[in-house]
Amino acid sequence: MLFLNDTRFRAVFYQVVAISAVLLAGWVMYRTASANLAKQDIATGFGFLSRQAGIAISETSIAYGPTDTIARAILVGLVNTIKVSFLAALFGTIIGVFVGIGRLSANPLLSRLMLAYVEVLRNVPLLLYLFLWYFLIILVFPPVRQAIQLFPGFFLSNSGLAVPAVEWQSGFGLTLGALAFGAVAALVVRGIGQRRRIASGKANAGWIVALALLVLPVLAVWASGAVSLSWSAPEAGRFRLTGGLQIRPEFVALLVGLMLNLSASVAEIVRAGIQAVSRGQWEAALALGLPRSRTLRLVVLPQALRVIIPPLTNTYLTVFKNSSLAIAIGYPDLVMVSNTIMNQTGQAMETIAIFMGIYLGLSVLISLFMNWYNARVALKTR
Amino acid sequence: MKSKFLALCAATAALMVGATAAQSATLDTVKARGKLICGVSLSTPGFAAADDKGRMQGFDADICRSIAAAVLGDGEKVDFVLTNINTRFQALQSGEIDVLSRQTTATFSRETSLGIDFGPTVFYDGQGLLVPKSLGVASAKELTDAAICTLPGTTTSQNLTDFFRSIGGKFELVVFESPDENRAAFYSGRCEAISSDRSDLASIRAVANNPDDYVLLPETISKEPLAPAVRQNDSNWRDIVSWSVYMLMAAEEKGITQANVDEMTKSEDPEIQRMLGGADELGKMLGLDNKWGYNVIKSVGNYAEVFDRNLGEKTKLGMTRGPNTQWNAGGLLYAPPVR
């Protein structure tokens, strides 16, 4: 066989065979599933997305009412998923970095304590922690009618934390736009300033200009009178507190659970990253007279980052996917909203396809972003 | 969560690889297997819950037993499969279970779009609200702005939403996946009220530390006719399920009980003779043994006995018959004539 002995041909040939097999399997599954669904008289198609949802969702970050469409309800669930995952990743990373550094401390009490923190959080399934945090909140705090008043206007109960809130009557979008513009301008100016400083070795006023650029557009919008705010404080209704901002126990339990779980993983990654930087780097920096804290911040951590980023990507993906455990403690995330919709319409295949597609798409986006960032901090070999 | 997902995966996989069980006649499958596979709820005292000896007890479980008795002659030839509220229809569609007897409300959209058929209503229920007595609430209309705990059932959250829209109020819906978390959140005061079918609320109240601290509000905010379901396009199997249920109702009407069924075979009443297989060959018309009616009553008793044993006033649930009494006593139970 002349062709099969040709390695170049073989490489391509196997690829083609593998891809065709996958496509064929997918097509067969799709065909059988559609045929079986039709045979069993089960409704199919995505038309149900534009029907009226008819369900209430307690936690909504975007405007939503029961008369909105099913597609909108799914979007509300998605926003809730992103909100909790993002905050958990943010706070979890900050805690994790400190815990990871603490693990390497010369102080035995601190390092052992941090070790215990990591092991206790890493070795128990997250779902059990979610139950623990949730039941702690709802069993320890009093019912809402006997809410504890922390400060005037701040109420803590097993229905969550109610705080006074500022409500935007108008000008929210304008302020956000001004803030975004200011931030981009400030970043550009700061970059220029830093480059000049490195080139000339002299301090310059770049950071002052950057700060001014960050603050001035927002101030200008406010001074123009386009913004009007109203104050809303929680008030005791017949059953619960109305008005203000309500932070619900389901959200807090999920956020705390995800955040602590993530922080334990991040701590181990950071510790490994720091230990991967050779001792010589520490010694050289100390020999130059840099104190330990600055050695860590300016010499070791930037190098450790190269080792840290790839496993960190995995951790972020995990926290995003783990947010679907929300369903156990009643936080209306993407999966919970989809489940209710699945139950209402009976269109399980379509609904599962939608939320799996969304998870896949967003996970790939997170990976792409982290890979881009990894490439940026990676060692540039010239 | 995990078991639910496995069940979903199994159902999806069965759909994908071409489930054949769904296509052959269910009666033949059940007879060949020698067992009826019946889908019941996870743990709902009074409807389906294992007792301390591991035997499945409850109203829904006895409906399963009556069908098994009709088909196989023995009410104990049932395998109970615990079905999740989210996957119950998929379990039925994919052929994993032969009949779904799980406090399931018959509705238009379920009957038309899920590929299933409902049998006769076995229990006329309605959605209600349970609140702590200390709340001092006398009507569901006062619950504006309250938080209400529910399970992710279809009709449950939708009915609540509809009810509060109709009275122009708002409420906070807290949805739990598992009945245990749902109850715990309610008992701890996370929600002012818990909402479900009234029969289910009786069960929730019965397992509270002190049932007298809770009160069922008078409003019934929806109609919930609970009925067993079978796969669509198998009308013989649907007939068997329907007539097993009607047999329970007819037996109560005719005064046939588990205790006196042997005596009743000697009855002169032609309808009783037909029911118990003494005259005509009604069993053959269903593809069953001619003694099918006798077997049903012999294994579970009549409707009144099934109700009293599992839900009645002597049980922990302490439910009254309400609309679930015979038509000639002002109720809604009305079995078509056996002839």
TrEMBL record, chain A:
PROSITE patterns: ABC_TM1. GO terms for biological process: amino acid transport. CDD domains: TM_PBP2 (cd06261). Keywords: Amino-acid transport, Cell membrane, Membrane, Transmembrane, Transmembrane helix, Transport. GO terms for cellular component: ATP-binding cassette (ABC) transporter complex. Residues 78-370 form the ABC transmembrane type-1 domain. GO terms for molecular function: transmembrane transporter activity. It comes from Aminobacter aganoensis. The chain crosses the membrane at residues 12-30, 84-104, 124-141, 172-193, 205-231, 352-373. This is General L-amino acid transport system permease protein. Belongs to the binding-protein-dependent transport system permease family. HisMQ subfamily. It is a multi-pass membrane protein. It is found in: Cell inner membrane; Cell membrane. The lineage of its organism: Bacteria, Pseudomonadati, Pseudomonadota, Alphaproteobacteria, Hyphomicrobiales. SUPFAM superfamilies: MetI-like. Its main location: membrane.
From TrEMBL, chain B:
Keywords: Signal, Transport. It comes from the Bacteria. One of its GO terms (biological process) is amino acid transport. Pfam families: SBP_bac_3. SMART domains: PBPb. Residues 35-264 form the Solute-binding protein family 3/N-terminal domain. Residues 1-21 form the signal peptide. CDD domains: PBP2_BztA (cd13692). Belongs to the bacterial solute-binding protein 3 family. PANTHER family: AMINO ACID ABC TRANSPORTER PERMEASE, AMINO-ACID ABC TRANSPORTER-BINDING PROTEIN YHDW-RELATED. This is General L-amino acid transport system substrate-binding protein.
